Amino acid sequence: MVNFGDLIMAAMKTTLRSLFVICWMLWVQPVGAQYIFRHLDIVDGLSDNQIRSLSMIPDGRLAVKTASILNVYNGAAFEQFTPDKWQEYRWDYFKTPQEYYDNQGRIWMKECDHLLLLDLHTNEFIYNIEEELYRFGVEKKLINLFIDEDKNYWFVTEDKSFLCYDVRKDSLLTITEGSSEFARIHGIPREMTQYKNFYWIIYSDGLICLWDSTSGEFVSRDETFLSSLDDTADKIYINTSDKDRLYMHTTDTGDLWLMLSDGIYYFSRMNALWKEVCTISGFSNFFTCMDLDREGNVWVGTSRTGLRFIEKESFEVHTLPGMKLDTGGMIYNDVFSVFVDDYNGL
Predict the structure, then answer these.
(1) DSSP, residue by residue, 107-151
(2) Which of 341, 340, 344, 343 is nearest to 291 (CA)?
(3) Across the strands, what pairs with 263?
(4) Most buried pick, 94, 208, 218, 227, via CB within 10 A?
(5) Residues 125, 50: Cα–Cα separation, whole Å
C-alpha cells in the first residue's frame, strides 16, 4: 500500500511533478487540518502490497520496492522490474531495506540477504556486483553499503572492515580495520547520515561517532546509546524482527534526529545535548521509519498507531492514527516506510 497526500484529486495531472505539487499544497495547511490521502494499490498497476521502501529517482519518478519487484511510478502508471533471483548478490544483511543512487545513473537496493544493482540507462539489472566492487578496490564480500550525498561509497566487508571510496579522488580509504580493537568492541556501522563534511555514524553497540572527511579522522564520540541496539559486537548481522529499526537524519544546521524502535531523540550540536522527544509503548507497537520534510518537521511511522508528526521548533508531537482517503472512509494500517520527496510530498 502506498499513500500520497492529495488536496483535489480531480485536478490531478498525469505527471509526477503535478502529484507532488498537489501534496505540497495540502502540507501548508495547519497541523490540525485533516490530511487527505490517495490509495495506490494493485488495481493501479502496483505489483503487490508488500511495500518495503520508497525513494525518488533523480529524474523525478518514484521507486516503490516491494518484497520481490521494483515498481517505478511516473504519476500515471507503474513500470515493473523483476530481478533474476538466481543471479542475485547474496550477503549477510538482515536490516531495513534501502535504496541509494550513485553518480553513474544506477540504483543500489539493499535487501534482506541480497543486494541489487539496476542501471537506469539500460533498465537492466547488473548481476556481476563483485566485478563492480573490484573496480573500487573492494575484494571481500560486503555485509553493508552506504552512498552519501556526494555519491561517495561506504562499504562494510565480511571481515568487519569499514571502507570509503572517494569518487572525486578516485581512491579507497580504510576507516577501521575489521581486526581492530575498535571493531571488536563496537562492531560495525549500522547507519550513517551526512552534514557537509561531517558524518554521523552509529555502530552495532550504539556508539555514535562523528567523522570529518576533511581531516580524515573521527572528531567526537557519544556513548549515550551504548547497549541500546539489538546488535552485539559478536553477532552483528542476525535475522532480527521488524522491531530492530534505526534511522538517522541531520537538519539544515547540522543537528541530528535519531529514531530507535522505542524512542525519537534530537541532538543539538550547539549545546551538545540529547533531548528525548517522544517514546512509544504497547503490545507490538514500535516506531518503524522516519523522514524530515523541507521545513525540518519530522514524520515517523509506527507499527500499530499510525503516523507521528513532530514540529521542528516546539517539538510538539501530533498523532495521525488513521488516514482519510479521497474516495471516502479511513484506512488504519501499520506504516512500514515514510518518504518525503523533493517537492515536499509525503
Answers:
(1) EEEEETTEEEEEETTTTEE---HHHHHHHHT--SPEEEEEE-TT-
(2) 340
(3) 260, 279
(4) 208
(5) 21
